[in-house]
Design brief:
2 copies of one chain form a homodimer. Chain A contains no helices and 9 strands. Chain A is an all-beta fold. A 5-stranded antiparallel beta sheet of chain A has the order 2-3-9-4-7, with no helix packed on it. A 3-stranded antiparallel beta sheet of chain A has the order 6-5-8, with no helix packed on it. The radius of gyration of chain A is 14 Å and the shape is globular.
Chain lengths: 112, 112
Amino acid sequence: MVRSGNLFADLPARSDAELTTILAEGPGVVIERIVSTGQASPAGFWYDQDWTEWVALLTGSAAVLFEGEGKPRVLTPGGHLTIPPLARHRVEWTDADEPTVWLAVHMGKRGS
Amino acid sequence: MVRSGNLFADLPARSDAELTTILAEGPGVVIERIVSTGQASPAGFWYDQDWTEWVALLTGSAAVLFEGEGKPRVLTPGGHLTIPPLARHRVEWTDADEPTVWLAVHMGKRGS
């Protein structure tokens, strides 16, 4: 069965929390759409993952700060990052005016 | 080391063949950008893969025909498909007027 959908369907104009949808899964792989509407990582919070994540921003904008870098990397549509295991990072801000659609591919995540 | 890039950078206006770039790789996973400029699968050719492929179309348009379906599925920006192993399919056409940018995630591909 071929599953299909659209990455830009059912975008919330505004929501309290980020909206994460699993689009596809395989052995050790999870593909997600994440929609942010102004959210940022909580103060002092760092993502610290033991797997590789590839992330692309498709609409909106966002800034991702990696520990040890002086300033965040600002992403605009099409921008993508390959985040190696244990690269501590946080989302400093996401677009306040329009939904930010991310694609995230988690690779080698345990338990998936 | 965090690798970065933009999915819409360096798009060929026109090229003889599709342009495939590996964006990231993990255990059993390959993430590619494919740029089509009017190409289609050769007459009589079917993709017949023993792994799962998730594909999304980001710009342009295309039609993907699955064996046994009466008509192709037309993809516009944001459209995505999860193609299970052994689902024979072909690209009937891609946009003649602007580059078609695809994202493809191959999952569980042997040798990768």
